[in-house]
């Protein structure tokens, strides 16, 4: 697993574009298995949220060029549903009052050449997390399952 840490107060478009470009290359070749966005406290490095996007690639489509039937409209509906669910997550996720940084973790096949700007990383797990599974969506090539884990020990049960 490779990690790209963005610890600046301002995220540059150039850095973001490079990450996205690498992801698309890995996706097209069927080599990207999971992308994880990890949100951490800037002061302590403690992991506060972990957004896990598991990617299952249809190998027949990638390797043999087999075509799957699914309308673009249906794909867009599924993506819009997960975007609405992500947007509504503010109703249950704890507020992040401190300054935060984030890491992007990429789980790829072992034969991938990792760019020199990426480093090996631990999985940056949360101890005893709260977890919410979000809607899945699939395209003609990829199925994506989404799970958000978050630290929730500050909320007292009354």
Q: How would the blueprint of this fold be written?
A:
Blueprint (H helix, E strand, L loop, with lengths): L1 E5 L6 H16 L3 E10 L5 E11 L1 H6 L7 H16 L12 E9 L10 E2 L9 E9 L3 E9 L8
Antiparallel strand pairs: 1-4, 1-5, 2-3, 2-4, 3-7, 6-7
Pfam families: HORMA
InterPro entries: HORMA_dom, HORMA_dom_sf, Mad2-like
Subcellular location: Nucleus
Strand content: 25-35%
Radius of gyration: 17 Å
Low-confidence stretches: 5-13
Average pLDDT number: 81
CATH fold-type name: Cell Cycle, Spindle Assembly Checkpoint Protein, Chain A
- Identify the CATH homologous superfamily: HORMA domain
H/E order of the elements?
EHEEHHEEEE
Q: How many domains would you count in the coordinates?
A: 1
Strand elements, count: 7
Which strand order do you get reading across the main beta sheet?
5-1-4-2-3-7-6
Question: Pairing-aware structural class of the strands and helices?
Answer: alpha+beta
CATH architecture: 2-Layer Sandwich
N-end to C-end Cα span? 40 Å
Shape verdict:
globular
Percent in helix: 10-25%
Q: What about the largest sheet?
A: 7 strands, antiparallel
Main location: nucleus
Organism: Acer saccharum
Subcellular location: Nucleus
InterPro entries: HORMA_dom (IPR003511), HORMA_dom_sf (IPR036570), Mad2-like (IPR045091)
């Amino acid at each position: 697993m490779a990690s790209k840490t963005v610890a600046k107060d301002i995220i540059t478009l150039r850095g973001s574009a490079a990450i996205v470009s690498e992801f698309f290359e890995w996706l097209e070749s069927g080599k990207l298995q999971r992308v994880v966005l990890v949100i951490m406290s800037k002061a302590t490095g403690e992991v506060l949220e972990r957004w896990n996007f598991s990617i299952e690639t249809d190998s027949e489509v990638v390797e043999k060029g087999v075509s799957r039937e699914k309308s673009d409209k249906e794909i867009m509906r599924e993506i819009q549903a997960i975007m609405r669910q992500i947007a509504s997550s503010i109703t249950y996720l704890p507020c992040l009052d401190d300054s935060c940084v984030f890491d992007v973790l990429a789980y790829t096949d072992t034969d991938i050449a990792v760019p020199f700007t990426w480093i090996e990383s631990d999985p940056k797990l949360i101890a005893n997390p709260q977890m919410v599974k979000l809607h899945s969506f699939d395209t003609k090539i990829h199925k994506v399952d989404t799970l958000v884990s978050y630290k929730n020990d500050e909320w007292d049960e009354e």
